[in-house]
């Protein structure tokens, strides 16, 4: 086959795998930003925090990073509940989400990032599971397990979340809170409790995404910065509150970014993220698949 | 919506229809008095520091004044209009690198470099605003957050201005009328700070400021009564960008060496938000109080504790202040009075 074509095909396939990781990172945001209307800009920082705790626990106990990521998720769920509690008490209840609430999440993001620098130093950390060095080959196409395993975990988490939101009572309540919190109150469901639960879930998803991130690449305390542009671009492109939209946007985004990196060099990938974000905001703020509200 | 906000909406109505503007109700702004006072205070600072005669005084002074410019710039958009700009470090670095690039290309000196930097970052602000300000405010904030990351990528990849290795600017030993180079840089930043605070005060007391306050309190109501919201927001974004770039342009001259990591330092991003919010956003005096207080504290603390811990404390102060004292230090005094 033509070498350029092989390069392109490989770029697309590993872009799809990369998109799996991005989907994991953006799903949590689709819940908090998309459904609950909480602009959690600290989401990528929480993800990196999850990645660091995966490295720490995984190295200490000799466990697989993806397994640790799933096991630690309940702890991050509790952390999310705590953060939402503070946010609700001081900002949401007072109706001061716009300026003060945003500044609050910026502060949280900053505290996490600098806290990680102080605790672990600015160096990169990694934890390679044994399968990270295996690559399956199908014809001319490479399938590195380093990318495949995290993408599968991400898909599993996304599928579980989707089922939960569509099938369970509390899941439906989350969707309802996204549409009309007052109506929910009239049906004797406390919207604050539902939002707290959903925000906890979104932070738990951030920590799972952090585990996936560790397998794909080494992390340092500022790794989250690049992800801000990516996850928000994906979340908005996917139509904010839609999980299938979020997944599609993430896969598309992974392919575009990876093909750009293949042909023009990886140092430009942050620019791709930002360019997409600006284009989406300027031309399709309702998302790729959505209609204008 | 607060009573002050309603006043803001009413006062700003005239903006859409210039002929219908009545004389407004605000107290006389005393502009001449303010400028005179600011210049006198500045002169007193210069004389005082010369009498002390310690180079460190100029260093610390420059540090604080630079933050006065930066937080006043943030306040014009964030404090008055309620639109959060997270990209202070990006705008500041864009200003600094404009100065470096123009010096390399045309041998331009500091003062024209400052003007050019303001021009470039003003356009940057206008462009970002034009693309995102028609949507809800959070989208603008997210875009500015990413802008800094992307600008850093561009600078790291741009070899002409040194790439990731950084760029040097040879500092002259002396600049004639000043006793030292440190004093020269201090005076330049002092003038920029007076200018920035003056502009921020003029904006606050003008009809532009009232329009911005109306946007902050209720954008739909403001739009409905005829405030040209998009135009006012774009003016504010541009002004904010200009002043942030201007604050950054002297940076390479001040330190003699600049690399992307220092120019895009997290310290600028967090301080530009923490200082106005802690001092009291929405009033021109708030950012000045915040910058003097936080800047002074950080200057004193770097001697004793690590810079990371220093920034960590600023982050915690930001979170604690926005949660417990959302009106900042100024609001605290006003409530008492």
Automatic annotation (TrEMBL), chain A:
Belongs to the binding-protein-dependent transport system permease family. LivHM subfamily. This is Branched-chain amino acid ABC transporter permease. It is a multi-pass membrane protein. It is found in: Cell membrane. PANTHER family: AMINO ACID ABC TRANSPORTER PERMEASE PROTEIN, BRANCHED-CHAIN AMINO ACID TRANSPORT SYSTEM PERMEASE PROTEIN LIVH. It comes from Siccirubricoccus soli. The chain crosses the membrane at residues 12-33, 45-63, 69-87, 99-121, 147-165, 197-219, 231-256, 263-283. Its main location: membrane. InterPro entries: ABC_transp_permease, BCAA_transport_permease. Pfam families: BPD_transp_2. Keywords: Amino-acid transport, Cell membrane, Membrane, Transmembrane, Transmembrane helix, Transport.
UniProtKB/TrEMBL annotation, chain B:
Keywords: Cell membrane, Membrane, Transmembrane, Transmembrane helix. The chain crosses the membrane at residues 32-52, 83-102, 114-133, 139-160, 181-199, 234-254, 266-293, 313-333. InterPro entries: ABC_transp_permease, LivM-like. It is found in: Cell membrane. It holds the Pfam family BPD_transp_2. It is a multi-pass membrane protein. Its main location: membrane. It comes from the Bacteria. This is Branched-chain amino acid ABC transporter permease.
